[in-house]
């Protein structure tokens, strides 16, 4: 079994967007919504909803993509989410 990495975009309860990466998407979304520890940004903006994700074979590629998407404007992230 090869490990997969994901870059994802969440929509927070205040309608803001959060970009992150993980190797277990389901577990990470659960933690964003339920864990006492973890990302402070999403912890105070629960619940969060998964709006988009991409899959990568290497951590390096996922981290590069995460850094790229984090720099984007909100409108560009929304275009990615909406497939425009």
Could you characterize what this model shows?
With 84 residues, the protein is of the alpha+beta class. The chain has a single domain (5-81), classed as 3-Layer(aba) Sandwich (GIY-YIG endonuclease), CATH 3.40.1440.10. Helices cover 40% and strands 25% of the residues. It contains 4 helices and 3 strands, in the order E-E-H-H-E-H-H. The protein has helices spanning 25-34, 40-43, 59-70, 74-81; strands at residues 5-11, 17-22, 49-56. It has a 3-stranded antiparallel sheet with strand order 2-1-3, with helices on both faces. The model has no long low-confidence stretch (mean pLDDT 95).
Task: Using brief descriptors, characterize the structure shown.
84 residues; alpha+beta; GIY-YIG endonuclease; three-stranded antiparallel sheet; 4 helices; 25% strand; globular
Q: What count of structural domains?
A: 1
Helix count from the secondary structure assignment: 4
CATH superfamily annotation: GIY-YIG endonuclease
| Rounded average pLDDT | 95
